[in-house]
Amino acid sequence: MAELAFTPAQHEAAEHEGSALLVAAGAGSGKTKVLVERLMRRITGPDAVDIDRFLVITYTRAAAAELKARISDELTKRLAQAPRERTLRRQISLLARAHIGTIHSFCSMLVRTNAHLLDVRPDSRVPDKAEISVLRDSVLEDLLEKKYAEMTEPFRQLVDTLGAGRDDAALVSAILDTYDAVQSHPYPELWLSGQIAGPLPEGDAGMTPWGALLLEKARKTVEYWLGRMSAAADRMRSDGKVFAARGDSFLETVSGLRAFTDALKRGWDAATAFGGIPFPRVKPLKAEYKTPEAEVLMEERKRCKAAMEKIRGLFSLASAELIADIAATRPATDELFRLVIDFGREFSSEKRKRGLLEYSDLEHLALKILYTPEGEYTPQAAEISERYEQILVDEYQDVNRVQDMIFGAVSKSGRNLVMVGDVKQSIYRFRLADPTIFLEKYAAYSDKPASGEPKRLLLTKNFRSKALILKAVNDLFSSIMSEDLGEMEYTEREFLSAGREVGDESEPAFELDLLDISQAPEGTDRVNAEAEITARRIKALLDSGMQTEGKPIRPGDIAILMRSPKGRDTQFVKALAALGIPAAARKSASLFDDPETSTLISLLSITDNPLQDVPLIAVLRSPLFGFTADELALIREADKTSDFYTALVKRAQVCSKCEGFLNTLGDFRDKAQDLGVDRLLRYIFDKTSITAAAGATGAYGGERLYLLLDYARSFEAAGGGGLFGFINQLRVMSEQEENSLSITPAATGREVSVISIHGSKGLEFPVVVLSNLAGEFNNGDLNKKLLIHQNLGAGPKRTDTDRRIEYATLPRIAIRQKLKNELLSEEMRLLYVAMTRARDKLICVCTSKAPAQELLSELSLKASLPVDPNVLENCRSMAEWMLLASLPLSKRDPMWKPVIYRYDGETEKKAQADAQSVREPDEEDIRRISQAVSYRYPWKEAASLPSKITATGLGITGKAAEAAEEAHSLLGDFFGGTFTKPGFVYREMGLTAAERGTAIHRAVQFIDLNRCLDIESAEAELLRLKNMRFIREEEAAAVDPMKIVQLVLSPIGVRIRNAQSVRREFKFSLLVRADELLGRGGDEKLLLQGVIDCFIEEDGELTLIDFKSDHVTAQTQEQKAITYLPQLSAYSLALRRITNKPVRQSLVYFFATGCSIDISENGGRYDDDT
């Protein structure tokens, strides 16, 4: 950053005294220098205060070290100018004692010095993620085991709703997610208890916090469309013929929107009772009067109708039904919260026993020291508050509620608290940062307060970036950032202004690129295409002679920033390398990515337990021991049935190489009995060539091994846990994206940096290329089974365990909406951070799979200035945000005209976006758009079908189809298969009717019919299946042996036993035409899937049999069988297609009556001409 003279705002930030001060320091505004100057003015001069009487809190240790270094440099510089100044010498000597560090280092100091007031060991330490993960998994496993043994009714309901599936992974995830979420609350257990004890809502759902949020959101959306449709009606008045035909319809819709807005203001039930928004059919209009403008307005009406149908769906249930859903889910959520409380207590107890304190523990223990249970300051708080002259908090936008309470307690109730930050750069919500704390004070504090009142001060002079870059930032965020999306208004008072001298102007400082890959070969990877074009653009920039600070730019002056570079950064590095441009991904290199380290971990695993085939083979095949594939095959040949270690022992009898390996491994296993893990590793290093092999692989190879050795020393120093415990901890660590066993390569300054936006915060680069803007927002966390919000509580789904379907409750819908808003707001702030990293040039790259002009024309229909939050909320990427804003902005500033690059897979063509992409559409544009939007797909019915359909789903209509679809979603998407309860649950509860039906189907699938000619033999056969684990004990007990005998002795049973061939549980997947399967949908292809219970072959013809466990009688069985006609017809079609043999009969066999019904004569929909 260029040397700066203090602006009036900076001077005031350095001087203000007498009250709390909130400094909203915009990007590049020199806030660190202001902090240093503020301290220097207080620790020097005649009224100097010792520096150790200031508490300075930074977000990271690196930031603390940088700040301390700057203070030291400034003191040293001043001492050189006044060598006899004793005050300066004293401050330099006290600097080492000054508390300039993170909030956690401060909390740790508080806990250590007040350990006698707490139930903690003074030598407690902060564990790494892997160690704490192992411990908390163990604690939770013990807790759940105890809960399963007790099996109370609330826990049973929780298991059914949250923990159903093959295991309790969903339940475990819900407990841990909830536990983590509440750690940012000052009193987590109190919050959870309050949720349990809270009364159930009554009356109108709009009076609940969830209903109120949704009503407000719906009202704003309806008002948006009211404005759009009113404007459309006004535009239509200019054409009398069109208005005469369509005006009344539009005006009636406008009236309905206005009435619906009023209903939303009156409450939930008023909105539910509202009859609907009218969209009357428009009168016919002669072809000559159907102007492009008229058709665009009709398209606007169509979009409005779709939006209103979605909103009306939200208000389909009355308050009573919604509150009933809340009441039904309350026992399960209450039990979950009780589990989280129990887990928190037991987890805390185990941590204290081991002397472990997580960062959240440090914060809550500090709170316990500073506050009484009644919420008053303790004597310790008063003492600490008097100790410090002033509290300075940097990056205040990233604090949470616990931390903010700590600052309040040690700062004389905030009177000597200085908070510095930029809420537009708050990008750590996933670490429980809460930007609303900053926003609340930003709104509450005054620019010109009365004496003693808190003051707000803005630093908006930017000393980093060129004016055009700042103009682009101001233009964009004043267009898209609002309280509704972004959590604050970006107004002129927040605008950044240039404070640096103008540099090289040979290149425009801001560039918006639009990469069109619509003509690229099918299957072209978007990121690869973007990487190739970006590399070419950087090459051109390097060849252009552009300068920064008077010197030509070099690769090291350029950074490529991405939202999430994982898996993409290497593509950009390769593309740049292909053009001879050095590049490096600035990311941590994990120890687990190193082959020698992986080999070492495998060696430790088989030292602990050699009966593990995969790690054993990995070690044998590694360069350490050098076994070839042929040698491994010979080992397996020695014993084909046992584990690989047993085969190795047998092979060693005739193979000296195998014998040598076993001797080495035996030596390591003997040493492992006596040595700690660290000493065992050192012994392995001495006895093998692994360190030399690692060093030969390139950068950081040997360093990683010694990093593992250091970690082993720490593991042993912390009490250890044996070799198995060490390996288990490494396993957990390997599954974490960030772990302490990583090496971050230092930047050499000679290569293009590829870095995440999060990683770029606090940095600056002469040239920034902002890439992967078209990457879609990640909404995965919004689909969890249980959503938690710190203000709105829990948002569960309601599960109908009888029908095995689930649906969202009112709290869930509201919390999901709130979380989505917060997620998109953070994405917007990420974009702000990325754009403000550039000093001399900013290139924003948007990629489109659709033709560029088509995309821009489509977006122009939704564009406005500012862009409405309703539109922004439905965008899928940052690229859509930027392009939406660019269309109206380009009318007043050409720099917002996108530069279009067309990529065909081999060459790229560049073209300046023509006026069509950045102005109001003319008649030709509108004609072309109207033609596109008025196109009607000829096979509309097929388009409404899923691409995949199951045979069992055919013929199910109405509510049943809806239930079937929801059930399929529940079982497939949420539980990964069918419900499988623990055995003891079956023993206590018994099988449901559906589960008994499944049991008899499984028995028939595996049973030998020739062994079931009487009840005794059928019972023996069921016992055989149980012993062979084809069916569970509970299922075997649920199958009536008489039903099996009845099937075997029936006519169809005899035919099955005597058939030429029999196939049971025949699974198939088959592509069929929609009209062939459904009689409609044209030649669209559907994937038909199914499982045929049984089919037999007799004289070259097939008979298919479908077994049914329905409750039927002799009087109702035929009627019931007919309902399965679509299913069996589909089976018949599939068999004919797959086997090329005719299907003679389609039979439905009912276990309830022991009869088979032939429905093949009714199956004439499908013929054999396929």
Plain-language structure description:
This protein is α/β, with parallel strands linked by helices and 1170 residues long. 51% of the residues lie in helices and 13% in strands. It has 47 helices and 29 strands. An eight-stranded mixed beta sheet has the order 13-16-12-17-21-9-22-23, with helices on both faces. Strands 3-2-4-5-1-6 form a six-stranded parallel beta sheet, with helices on both faces. A hairpin with a 2-residue loop joins strand 10 and strand 11 (551-552). It is globular, with a radius of gyration of 35 Å. The N and C termini lie far apart (74 Å). 39% of the residues are buried. Residues 907-919, 935-943, 956-989 and 1162-1170 have low confidence and may be disordered.
**How big a fraction of the residues is strand?**
5-15%
Contiguous low-pLDDT stretches (5 residues minimum) are 907-919, 935-943, 956-989, 1162-1170
Helix residue percentage: 40-55%
Rg calc: 35 Å
Q: What is the CA-CA span between the terminal residues? A: 74 Å
> For the largest beta sheet, what order do the strands appear in spatially?
13-16-12-17-21-9-22-23
* Mean of all residue-level pLDDT scores: 85
Q: Please give the count of helices.
A: 47
Name the overall outline. globular
- The secondary-structure class comes to alpha/beta
Main sheet properties: 8 strands, mixed
Let me know the number of strands. Answer: 29
